[in-house]
Amino acid sequence: MLDPMVNVVQSFCDNASTRLGDIAQRIGHEHDVSAARKMIYSSVYEMNMLTLQEKLRATALIAPNTKDIDVFFSLPIVDHMEWVLMVLNGDI
Question: CB of 40 within 8 A of CB of 69?
């Protein structure tokens, strides 16, 4: 009589553990993306030939899209400016 209850509780705990792991992974990913978004403006801010409005617009265009964030940070630093200009011009 006790064995079926133990199995049910064990199954519940296993499922809960898996779900909590998934939630923790999603939270971790969101934290990483949030940090990357903050780094976008820091990187764009260093681009002295851009106006403040261009810096803010570039950040606003890049930050919402995780794919663009990944592309931006996968490029060599020397290519960041050209990529940002392409974003601002609508070429990307």
Answer: yes
Q: Going by C-beta distance under 8 Å and a sequence separation of 6 or more, which residues neighbour residue 44? A: 50, 55, 58, 59, 62, 80, 84
The rounded distance, in Å, linking the Cα atoms of 38 and 13 is: 37
pLDDT in tens, 32-91: 778 888 889 899 999 999 999 999 999 999 999 889 999 999 999 999 999 999 999 999
**Rounded to an integer, what distance in angstroms lies between the CA atom of residue 32 and that of residue 26?**
10
CA distances (Å), origin 36, targets 4, 12, 18, 29, 68: 48, 36, 27, 11, 11
The alpha carbon of 23 is separated from its chain's Cα centroid by a whole number of angstroms, namely 16
pTM: 0.64
